[in-house]
Design brief:
Layout (H helix, E strand, L loop, with lengths): L9 H12 L4 H8 L3 H14 L16 H13 L5 H12 L5 H10 L15 H14 L4 H4 L2 E10 L32 E9 L2 E8 L5 H17 L6 E3 L9 H9 L17 H13 L6 H14 L2 H9 L1 H10 L8
Parallel strand pairs: 1-4
Antiparallel strand pairs: 1-2, 2-3
Length: 340
Amino acid sequence: MAPHGKELSEDLKKRIVALHKDGLGYKKIAKTLKLSCSMVAKTIQRFNRTGSTQNRPRHGRPKKLSARAQRHIQRLSLGNRCMSAASIAAEVEGVGGQPVSAQTIRRTLHQSGLDGCRPRRKPLLKMMHKKGRKQFAEDKQTKDMDYWNHVLWSDETKINLFGSDGVKRVWRQPGEEYKDKCVLPTVKHGGGSVMVWGCMSAAGTGELQFIEGTMNANMYCDILKQSMIPSLRRLGRRAVFQHDNDPKHTSKTTTALLKKLRVKVMDWPSMSPDLNPIEHLWGILKRKVEECKFSNIHQLRDVVMEEWKRSPVATCEALVNSMPKRVKAVLENDGGHTKY
C-alpha cells in the first residue's frame, strides 16, 4: 500500500484511469496497483470532474530562488565548507542582484542535504603523513589478533583539576542560562593539572607514572626502566612496545636504551593518535575522574590512580580488538583521517 499522503505519479494516475475505462472497479484497480480504494476513487473522480489527471495550480508564495541559484548556493558551500550562511547570501546577492536572507540560505542547504555541524578536531595530515599511515596499514593488515594482543600501547596525557579541555553541553530551558547547574565554572590559570604516562595491552592496564615538571629524554628513560619494562615482561617474549614519534621517544638516549634492553619497538606513523587504542582509554579515564569530587592536586592524583587500576580488562581488550578495523579504515581513506 502506498503511504498516506504520498502523491501519485502521472503515469500511475493514467493507468488508474485506463483500467477504469476497461471496466475494472475501484477494488480491483486498488488490488492490482497495490493502492487504497480511496486513492483510486479520488483519482477517477478528479478525472471525471476536470477531464485531466494533473493537479490544479496550488496556492502559496513561489520559491524566491531559482533552481540555478540553488545550485550556485550548493557549489559555494561545497567549495568552502567554512563559509557562513551570511557570506553565501552576500555572494548570491552580489552576483544575481537578488537580496537573500541567511535563513533562506540555510533552508536551501538543508533541503540539499547539507547541515551546519561542528567540525571534528583532527591532527593536520600532510602528504608525507598520509603515505606513512598508509604504509603502516599495508604492513599490518595481515596481522592477526595474536600479534595485537602482545603489543604494549603507551602515551602521555594531561588531566585537569578543574574541568576538561573538551566541549560540554547542558540541557536547559529558556531563562536558565545563568543557573548554577547550567553554568560551566572557570578559574584563573586553569586550576592546575597533572601529566601522566601510562601503558596498556589487551590483558589490561599497565603501570601509570606521574610526570613531575617538563619531561626530557632522561626522564623518559627512567619511566621506561621503572614502569614500561615490568609491564612489557608480563606480555612474554613476543611483546612489542609502541610509542609515538615525540622527540623524547626518538632521541639517541631513548633509542640506545631500548636497544640495550632488547625491546622490540613498533614502527609508528606520525600524526596517528587514531591508531592508538590507549587514546580512547584516556578519554574513559578522564570522564570517570570528572565524576569524582576532589579539591587539590594530591586528591586528583589519588583519584586518577584509583580509577586507572579499576579500568576493566574487558574495556582494554575491546579497544585492542578494534585494531584490524582501524587499519582497514586507514587503507579505505588512503592514509587520511578515520572515525577513531
